[in-house]
Fold this protein.
Amino acid sequence: MREWIDAQTGRTVRQLTENPEGSSVGYFRVPRRLPDGRILARRHGEQRALIAIDINTGATQAFDFLPWLPMGLRETDGRLWYQILGENKICAVDLPDGTPQLIGELPGSEPHNGTCITCDGSTVVCSFFEVDQSQEYPLPTTLDPAIFWQWTARPRHGRLQAYDLTTGASNTVVELDGLLPIHADVSPTDPTLIKFAHDDYDAFCQRIWTVRTDGSNLTKIRPQQRGELVTHEFWWPDGQYIGYKYQDRRHDATIHDLPWAEYSPIPTQFGLANLDGEECYLSHPINHYHTHLNVSPDGKRLSGEGTDGDNVVHAAAFSMDSTRIDFVPHATVHTPYVPFKANQVNASFSGDGEWIIFNDTIDEVKQVCAVKVEV
């Protein structure tokens, strides 16, 4: 296991993987902690596999049930649900030593891609998107506002479909025309509750919603006025709150020419809303924009991934009793930053909250790294 002193922060960084073809932890919302303290990551290339990593020793254990699509991990007991790639079969395995078992199938002969599964393993949520993928609508990664607004106006249609694996019943949870229901993410504690977002411009739409798996109780989370930017929502560990970043751009004259949140002149704040949709916490402005914020399992620490021009992983102590959040630099990120797409840091905490786990580019290859939290 390689270690070095970060020249920018003075802290010791550990490189946990050395796969020549790269390794990475998944998207920042994705659970990745096993009850024994190890974290889950993917090993890429010909030797691709899901791996468990011991943060203290760097030792890895590979789980070879690919090709697969991960759907959910219950961190309390290590139960992992996944879909066999190209098939409608849903399997479950109790990590680290269990044997994969088929628990159900999605209906129809055409393969569906399951997006997530409820915390009791009973209901699969699938996303169905119809999007104009023509070259007329490129991703807005060039800081050209015309391309940005053209992309947000692209034709699209989408829905979330729920499949009950025990009864075989299915229903449309939500359907949108001209928008997509993105970032579908089930509650970590309530097997009937789904969080999702609208994919319109974050300051000109109602970003965060919750809905029941039967399609009932559609709820706005942190209702927005036009110009209030809410983005990068995530579940709080107890499932009672939803966290997000906030910028008040209601009177910002640059919003049309500089719509990207990471380049906005307006300071970023961290907010929490309860399941009734009411904002119950809003911080003072934080030190700068962070691509994603994340929280430790005990809710007492936040991580931040930095941004263009400040590519540094940060950590901060957090309490709902204080609106001040002091993010402290911990480790330099060497992956190039791309506007709108960021740099895939995907930082989160270890189970005990003592380490930040993140992706970084080492010798031109993506690897999993860790840095001890000191705040």
The helical segments are 145-152. Residues 68 and 85 are 5 Å apart (CA to CA). The chain has a mean pLDDT of 95. The first strand starts at residue 2 and ends at 5.
